Amino acid sequence: MKQFTYEIQDPLGIHARPAGMFAKLAKSFADSTITLTKNDQTVKATQLMKLMSLAVKQGDVITIGVEGGDEAGAADALEKFLKENL
Amino acid sequence: MILIQGKGVSRGVVKGPLYFYQRTDRQIVQRVCEDLEAEKARLADAQQRSIEQLGVLAEKCREEAGDEAAVLFETHAMFVEDDDYVECIMDMLDSEQCNAEYAVQQAGEQFAAMFAAMDDAYMRARSADIRDVTTRIINNLLGIVEGGIDSDVPVILAADDLAPSETLQLDKSKILGFALQGGSGNGHTAILARTMGIPAICGMGDALKPELEGRTAYIDGETGRVILDPDNLTLQTLREKFEKQEQLKALMQTMRGQEDVTLDGRHINVYCNIGSPEDVAAVQANDGQGIGLFRSEFLYLASSDYPTEDEQFEAYKTVAAAMNGKRVIIRTLDIGADKNVGYFDLKKEENPALGVRAIRICLNRPEVFRTQLRALYRASAFGKVAIMFPMITSVWEVKECRRACEAVMKELKAEGIPFNPETEIGIMVETPASVFVAEDLAKLVDFFSVGTNDLTQYTLACDRQCNDLGKFFDPHHPAVLRALKMTADAAHKAGIWVGICGELGADLSLLPTFLAMGIDELSVSPASVLPLRAEIRKSIAQLCTLEALEC
After folding, report:
1. Per-residue pLDDT at B165 exceeds 60
2. How far is A53 from chain B, CA to nearest CA, in Å?
3. Which of B77, B222, B269, B525 could form a disulfide with B195 if both were Cys (CB 3.0 to 4.6 A apart)?
4. Which of B222, B251, B280 is the last residue of a domain?
């Protein structure tokens, strides 16, 4: 299990477009289970609608968890995506 | 050979597959389903089709609008496959043993409601995305194509008739021609076809059978015929016509950039009639010298509530700016009669053409009128806008319109919003009453524009929507032409200019008559500009006579 936290910088938060891109990226790591946690709510990163329903805003701190498969590779890719897009 | 005879309402020959317009008539009812596996297979198929369609949309969007916009469709495609959404649909199928359409609709409502209940305004708005995706899947389940043309190749669009709001949503690049069971030469599909410069036939009746869907057909907008499996002789004639038509089109291109002037030096303004800002491209492609009639109805027909001042302003400004200083005559709201808009809540009338329509609605509802006038004056700062009022019968109406304009200008001035106080104001002359009092009306306005379609209807007591009037509906009737002459004389006596923005303006056989009357402007569909220019350039105005006015 690999974990990291990230503080959202984007003024709009995780809106539909980046949520879609994030879920798409998470889906590409088929052998890993990737979760996203805000406060005490956790959703699978591939569950687009649930992910959006967290309504993650600018300044929110989210925790990403990766389990199984290429943990380190997936975590790096996801962190890079967050830094570039959110 | 199958030959179906109708009435040609827009010229040209074209060949293509027949495609019947599909109306969205979606009443989802819950049904008990015996074979759940079959429903699931249908669902999987509809999901697959939805994803493919969204992929195509995303690609199209990426080419036209860039990556940002395209990702939205990709997100929609992900919604289609979203685990929770699909799980919810499957649960519904299993527990209710119902049809897939019902399950999708219920799941869609549930998720849309979830988003709608969120605190965040942005997320609340996403419920519209969920509904959009849900509708797409349901349409694919039902085999419905929403207001559109589900074909990779351009088609000949067949329908009973098309409502103005339906024609607005059509992807015009997919339409080669129209074949209508009903409709008339003055109907809105016919006008659209002429604007687009593509052939159209109406009044085909039941002979145009839906079974013909997908069959290759020729349509000839001149003879009013739809032909399937032509015999050799017919095929040869059609091909020759088609070749000549293409040659003529090429020849007409040499008219671009030429002046609209007769051999003896009389200048005519050749302008265009348009129905939406999209049509400006056609005006420019055909070298129109201005816009003689911009029908503002599209704004009202395309929306489900009164369009706001800003929405209207944007549309008018777009056209005014795109025409780059050339005159753009915008006609105020002209609904009623054959153009109805639900939210206006108009009373059903026995004779809507003689009822509360056009300027009568505006004068009865000052707030609707004021919104449009404000948008028009604001747009006047961005180009050469002129305002035109339709269906005028009396001097007091024009005075009241002018007062409304004055009031709006005063407001804008007080608010510090720029506008052109010299904006030209004109009226449509389309009722016999306005012809009889034309000399008095001319003193109050900057120009006249004759709407020959309505003027013919009201002068000859012939309903323009009615297909059976045949020879009785005669726009060349001396009474109509004499009314035109009276209007032109009244305008010139008062020192204002007069134009024609009805269909008659493009009737080349009447050009000598118009030149003899001294008509200053002809506003025609964009496709008619170059042929009209060619005809003007070989005319001699001084030799033209008024013999067409004799009975």
Report:
1. no
2. 7
3. B525
4. B251
- The single-letter DSSP state of residue B495 is T
* Residue B25, domain member (yes or no): no
Read off the CATH number of the domain in which A18 is found.
3.30.1340.10
Asked whether residue B443 is domain-assigned, the answer is: yes
Residue B400 lies in a domain: yes
ipTM of the shown complex:
0.79
Distance CA B93, CA B35 (A): 11
B27 belongs to a structural domain: no
User: How far is it, in rounded angstroms, from Cα B193 to Cα B200?
Assistant: 6
Q: Cα B139 from chain centroid?
A: 26
A28 interfacial to chain B (CB closer than 8 Å): no
pLDDT at residue B233 tops 90:
yes
Assess A49–B contact: CB distance below 8 Å, yes or no. Answer: yes
| CATH code of the domain covering residue B202 | 3.50.30.10
Quick: pLDDT tens for B40-87: 888 899 889 888 888 887 787 677 656 666 777 788 888 888 888 888
> How many domains does one find in chain A?
1
B264 and B307: one domain? yes
How far apart CA B335 and CA B357 sit, in angstroms, is 6
The boundaries of the domain holding residue B113 are: 36-142
Nearest to A49 by CA among B80, B47, B45: B80
CA dist., res. A76 & res. B358, Å (int) = 64
Q: Which residues of B form the catalytic set? A: 188, 501
Domain end, chosen from B142, B160, B178, is at B142
Q: Are residues B277 and B221 in the same domain?
A: no
Closest Cα partner for B13 from B249, B286, B239?
Answer: B239
Of B82, B85, B120, the CB nearest to A55: B120
Q: Please give the distance of CA A40 from its chain centroid, rounded to a whole number.
A: 15
B15: left (phi over 0), alpha (psi -120 to 50) or beta: beta
* A44 and chain B in contact, CB less than 8 A: yes
Partners of A55 on chain B (C-beta within 8 Å) are 118-120, 123
Give the pair of three-digit tokens for residue A69: 């498969």
Q: What confidence tier does B537 reach under pLDDT thresholds 50, 70, 90?
A: very high
Spell out where B310-443 has E strands: 327-331, 384-389, 424-429
- Contacts for B481-486: CB closer than 8 Å, 24+ residues apart: B481/B510, B481/B513, B481/B548, B481/B549, B482/B549, B483/B432, B483/B435, B483/B455, B483/B459, B484/B450, B484/B452, B484/B455, B484/B514, B484/B517, B484/B519, B485/B517, B485/B546, B485/B549, B486/B435, B486/B436, B486/B438
Specify the pLDDT at position B278. 85
Q: Give the number of domains in chain B.
A: 3
Domain extent for A30: 2-85
Torsion of CA B190, B195, B289, B406, to 10 degrees: 60
Q: Is residue B337's pLDDT more than 70?
A: no
DSSP structure class, residue A54: T
Residues of B numbered 64-93 whose beta carbons fall under 8 angstroms of chain A's beta carbons: which are they? 68, 71-72, 74-75, 78-79, 82-85
